[in-house]
Amino acid sequence: MTLKIERISDERGARIRLSGEFRSDRLGQVRAEINREGPVTLDLEEVSLVDVDAVRFLNVREDEGIFVLHCSPYIREWMLREQGRSKARTNKRKK
User: Residue 44 is inside which H or E element, if any?
Assistant: First the structure.
């Protein structure tokens, strides 16, 4: 299955709805949609599968202030674990 990217715009900004498998080979396409114009929100309600690069991508977008909506529990848990690993690596480097 591939990734479908749908942009829905209104006066408040844009919602980018992703459907299918969000993998590293699609990061560029999603990044291009995010960078097109105005504030965006990522809607993952129909995302069935992600890989580690997609999870890291989502964490960076949240750090930039982009909201990630309708994220399945397994993806959200993975994002939280990756955030913890990233912070642990940063703390090790500081010591």
Answer: strand 40-50
- What is the value of pTM for the model shown? 0.86
* DSSP at 50: E
User: Would you list the domain boundaries of the chain?
Assistant: 3-94
Distance between start and end Cα atoms, the chain: 44
Q: Which two tokens stand for residue 4?
A: 């479908």
Q: Which amino acid would we find at residue 78?
A: W
* Class (C level, CATH) for 3-94: alpha beta
Encode pLDDT of 44-63 as tens digits. 999 999 999 999 999 999 99
DSSP H stretches of helix in 12-51: 27-36
DSSP 63-90: HTT-EEES--HHHHHHHHHHHHHHHHHH
Which of these, 93, 35, 28, lies nearest to 57 by C-alpha position? 28
Other beta carbons within 10 angstroms of residue 13's beta carbon come to 13
